[in-house]
C-alpha cells in the first residue's frame, strides 16, 4: 500500500494504580501511537516504550526519534506491500524493536482493513477467546500482596503472576502460595538476579510455580541455561528473546522451557509469529506477554495469542486492570472462564476515541 502519511501521538495515560517491578514504579504510562494513512484507510499501531529505560533500553523519547527520523523516511510516500517488505526496509536500523513493531502493527491494521480480514485471520489464529492472567506488581508487604491477589481472583483471573526482586521474593511468593494453594502462579524477576544471587530463588522450586520468568540479565542466555539445570520449575525467557535468532539460541542451549512472546520486543508481529512457529516445532510452549498496552496493543495481543502454540495464559488483562479511560471505544472485559474474546473486525478490530486521544496527547506530529 502506498503510505500517504505517518502521524505520531506522544501519549501519557494515568494507570488505575502504580505498577512496581524490580526496575521501578510507573504511575503514568507514556506511549507513542502511530497512525498510517493509505488508500483512504487509517491503521493504528502502539509503541510500548515507556518514559524510563527500565524494561528496555528504548524509551518513549528514543522511539519518537527513531520513528520520526529513521523509520518514517523509509515508508512515507513508498509502496509497502506487506510486513516482510516492511522488515526489509527497516533492516538497516540497528535495534529499536519497540519502535519498529509499532509501525508493523499499523501496517497489519491497514492491510486487514483493505482486505476485510481480522488480524486473527491474517495471523492464523485458531481461538475466539484466549486464556488470560493478571500481573501483580510488588506491594508494600506480603500481606498487601495477598490482598491484591485475592481481589483479582474475585474478579475471575485464574492465573496470577507476581513481580519479584532480591529481598522481595521468597516471603512474598510463599505468602501467596500459602493463601491460595491451588492457583496457577508464576513469578517474574525482570532480570534482577545474577547466577550468584539467584541462589535465593532455589526454595521457589518447591512452590509449584508454572514458571520463573527472566531471573537473569537480558543478554545472558547462557547463564539461564546453567540456572535451568538447577530447577525443576521451567525458566521462561522474556527480555532475552529479542528475535527469532535469539529464540533459536535459547532452545538449542536449553536455556528455558517456555518463552514469553511480546511482538514489540522482537520487532513486530511477523517476528512474533516466526518465534511462535519455531517454538511449536520444538515442543516449547509460548504465552503472550504484556506491556500495559492501551486498547490498540491489547487488541493486537489478543489476536496473536489466538495462535495454536499459545498454550499458557497471557498477560492480557481486562482494560480496567490498567486504565479507567482508554483511547479505544472498545473496552476488553474478562469472561467468566478467565478468557478475553479476540476482536473479529477488520485489522485490529478497534476504533479510536478521538476525544480521549486528544486529551492524552502531549505532542502530535505528521510526516
Ligand atoms: C513483563 N509486564 O512481563 C512486563 C514488564 C513491564 C505486565 O508484567 C511501564 C511500561 C511499566 C512497561 C512494567 C508485565 C512496565 C512495563 C513492567 C513493562 O516483564
Ligand atoms: Mg516479563
Outline the structure in words.
By secondary structure, the protein is an alpha/beta fold. The protein has eleven helices and 13 strands. The strands form three sheets. Strands 5-6-7-8-9-10-11 form a seven-stranded parallel sheet. A four-stranded antiparallel sheet has the order 3-2-1-13. Strand 9 (235-237), helix 8 and strand 10 form a beta-alpha-beta unit. Helix 2 (83-90) runs antiparallel to helix 3, helix 5 packs across helix 6 (170-179) and helix 8 (244-253) runs parallel beside helix 9. It is globular, with a radius of gyration of 19 Å. The two termini are 16 Å apart. The model has no long low-confidence stretch (mean pLDDT 98).
Features:
four-stranded antiparallel sheet, 33% helix, binds magnesium ion, 21% strand, 13 strands, alpha/beta, binds N-acetyl naphthylalanine
Q: How would you summarize the topology of this molecule?
A:
Blueprint (H helix, E strand, L loop, with lengths): L4 E17 L2 E15 L2 E7 L12 H16 L7 H8 L6 H19 L3 H5 L5 E3 L2 E3 L5 H14 L3 E5 L6 H10 L4 E5 L23 E2 L7 H8 L6 E3 L6 H10 L4 E4 L7 H14 L3 E3 L6 H10 L34 E3 L12 H7 E6 L1
Parallel strand pairs: 5-6, 6-7, 7-8, 8-9, 9-10, 10-11
Antiparallel strand pairs: 1-2, 1-13, 2-3, 4-12
Helix pairs in contact: 1-3, 2-3, 5-6, 8-9
Bound molecules: N-acetyl naphthylalanine (NPQ) and magnesium ion (MG).
Amino acid at each position: 500500500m502506498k503510505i500517504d502519511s505517518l502521524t505520531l501521538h506522544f501519549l501519557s495515560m494515568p494507570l488505575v494504580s502504580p505498577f512496581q517491578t524490580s526496575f521501578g514504579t510507573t504511575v503514568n504510562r507514556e506511549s507513542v501511537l502511530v497512525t498510517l494513512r493509505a488508500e483512504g484507510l487509517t491503521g493504528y499501531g502502539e509503541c510500548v516504550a515507556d518514559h524510563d529505560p527500565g524494561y528496555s533500553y528504548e524509551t518513549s523519547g528514543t522511539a519518537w526519534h527513531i520513528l520520526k527520523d529513521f523509520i518514517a523516511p523509509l515508508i512515507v510516500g513508498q509502496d509497502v506491500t506487506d510486513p516482510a517488505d516492511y522488515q526489509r526496509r527497516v533492516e538497516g536500523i540497528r535495534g529499536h524493536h519497540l519502535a519498529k513493531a509499532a509501525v508493523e502493527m499499523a501496517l497489519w491494521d491497514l492491510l486487514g482493513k483493505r482486505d476485510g480480514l481480522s488480524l486473527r485471520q491474517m495471523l492464523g489464529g485458531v481461538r475466539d477467546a484466549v486464556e488470560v492472567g493478571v500481573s501483580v506488581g510488588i506491594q508494600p508487604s506480603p500481606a498487601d500482596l495477598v490482598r491484591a491477589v485475592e481481589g483479582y481472583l474475585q474478579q475471575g483471573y485464574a492465573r496470577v503472576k507476581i513481580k519479584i526482586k532480591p529481598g522481595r521474593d521468597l516471603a512474598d511468593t510463599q505468602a501467596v502460595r500459602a493463601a491460595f494453594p491451588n492457583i496457577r502462579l508464576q513469578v517474574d524477576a525482570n532480570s534482577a538476579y545474577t547466577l550468584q544471587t539467584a541462589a535465593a530463588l532455589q526454595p521457589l522450586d518447591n512452590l509449584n510455580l508454572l514458571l520463573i520468568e527472566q531471573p537473569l540479565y537480558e543478554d545472558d542466555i547462557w547463564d539461564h541455561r546453567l540456572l535451568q539445570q538447577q530447577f525443576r520449575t521451567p525458566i521462561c525467557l522474556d527480555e532475552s528473546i529479542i528475535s527469532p535468532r535469539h529464540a533459536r539460541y535459547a532452545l538449542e542451549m536449553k536455556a528455558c522451557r517456555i518463552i514469553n512472546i511480546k511482538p514489540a520486543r522482537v520487532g513486530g508481529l511477523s517476528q512474533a509469529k516466526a518465534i511462535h512457529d519455531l517454538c511449536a516445532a520444538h515442543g516449547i510452549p509460548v504465552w503472550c506477554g504484556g506491556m500495559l498496552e492501551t486498547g490498540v496493543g491489547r487488541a493486537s495481543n489478543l489476536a496473536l495469542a489466538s495462535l495454536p502454540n499459545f498454550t499458557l495464559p497471557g498477560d492480557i488483562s481486562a482494560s480496567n486492570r490498567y486504565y479507567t479511560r482508554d483511547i479505544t471505544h472498545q473496552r476488553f472485559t474478562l469472561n467468566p472462564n478467565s478468557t478475553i474474546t479476540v476482536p473479529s473486525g477488520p485489522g485490529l478490530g478497534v476504533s479510536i476515541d478521538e476525544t480521549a486521544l486528544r486529551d492524552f496527547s502531549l505532542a502530535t506530529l505528521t510526516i
